[in-house]
Amino acid sequence: MSNTRRPVDSAEADVVEVNPLFARPGESTELARFSIPDCESLPETAYQIVHDEVALDGNARLNLATFVGTWMDSHAEKLYADTFDKNLIDKDEYKATDAIEERCRIILADLWHAPEPRNTIGASTIGSSEACMLGGLALKRRWQHARRSVGKSSERPNLVMSSAVQVCWKKFCSYWDVEARIVSISEERKVLDGHDLRSYVDENTIGVVAVFGVTYTGMYEPVERIAAALDEIQASKGLDIPIHVDGATGAFVAPFIQPHITWDFRISRVASINVSSHKYGLVYPGLGWIVWRDQAALPEDLRFRVAYLGGETPTVGLSFTRPGAQVLLQYYLFLRLGRDGYQRVHQATQDVAQYLSREIAKMPQFELWSDGSDLPVLTWHLRKGRSYNWNQYHLSDRLRMKGWQVPTYPMPDDLTHLTVQRIVVRGGLSRDLAGALVADLHAEVGFLESLTAPIEALGERPGFHH
């Protein structure tokens, strides 16, 4: 099997040249770039090479494309450095870390109103993608067991989702031979809301994915309305179809600043929920969670136990060895912030998002698609009925010259004619920085509006980051 690799740029040299200022006497000043060098280097030299190469990376605080957090306080950094070496799967050696992982899972189950938080089952994962895979597998396996128990075929399973799902769900369907039944969003129906759901489900439907925080737009899909539609379908057709809530972003936001929204285990049809800790959970990259509402929601044959690490180790997950440090960081934040702290942090980001929405809505060139009232995320497109000598890709390029990374991308299937821009507000985007962004936005739009002829459409590419 061949690995998929980024093609090597023919202009990139085969060697890394070390400035003599940094090399020590007797050291080589040229090191192979695409093979392990023959000789060793001093740690100071190797550090300087890597440090200088990544100096070309962007400024994380000005990256308004990504949901992923890039800052933690000095105490978290010290805790991280103290626990780099912990292997989460080795529960016999790292019993305390294992206990903290379990504690975090129960805390999340309680946050999401599980009927009996300590009777839930779940696991930490490598981000939400792994968590979604596990949630989907549990839906498929439960459906298969139910079909086989009554002598029916367990072939041709399908999963219903909106066209705006994150790519991990399309991967799940491809990897595990599940038909993806896509409900296209539209300008009239911006999210999957349960409308006409009976046209998509049948006896082979393993579940419906409700995205609580759409990556494209930051909007919440109304889980309660989706569940009500499925209740009606069960009453008329006898199909009992569960819901998995992909709460990668919203499951760490709504409990703190939108407690009035019913989306979680308070809805009996919700079988499982996933979340990304490295997004609005505020942890460094690499951590997600999956929680099932009760033990019955995760089939026994998806749970494994191994006995070669010094004791019997239960494991749920697609990966095995992985770091435990991020789990400890998550628990640190639960203790450090509490409910009040998370509420203040997320309310501040939403306030900034809605300030930006109001300012952009005032500009005659733009029309908002989402305004930050769900996630602290806003999207907008060019106002229809006007002519332009420029497009939003040009505006992204102009803003990048000022250091801002504001992505431009087409909407999903059946809406690809609509190009939007998106700002994800995270903790690093203060009200003052947002004001500077608004000023730069006005300046760059003013420049583009002053053009007397169209800009050639060269080099346009989507800029989209989960």
From TrEMBL:
Gene Ontology cellular component terms for the protein in this record: cytosol
One MF term in the entry's GO annotations: glutamate decarboxylase activity
N6-(pyridoxal phosphate)lysine modified-residue sites: 279
Keywords carried by this UniProt record: Decarboxylase, Lyase, Pyridoxal phosphate
SUPFAM superfamilies: PLP-dependent transferases
InterPro entries for this protein: Glutamate_decarboxylase, PyrdxlP-dep_de-COase, PyrdxlP-dep_Trfase, PyrdxlP-dep_Trfase_major
Catalytic activity field: L-glutamate + H(+) = 4-aminobutanoate + CO2
Highest taxon above the source species: Bacteria
Cofactors (names): pyridoxal 5'-phosphate
The EC number(s) this enzyme carries: 4.1.1.15
Any one GO BP annotation for this protein: L-glutamate catabolic process
One Pfam family named in its UniProt record: Pyridoxal_deC
Main EC class the enzyme belongs to: lyase
NCBIfam families (UniProt xref): Glu-decarb-GAD
Family of this protein: Belongs to the group II decarboxylase family.
UniProt name for this protein: Glutamate decarboxylase
Record organism: Salinispora tropica (strain ATCC BAA-916 / DSM 44818 / JCM 13857 / NBRC 105044 / CNB-440)
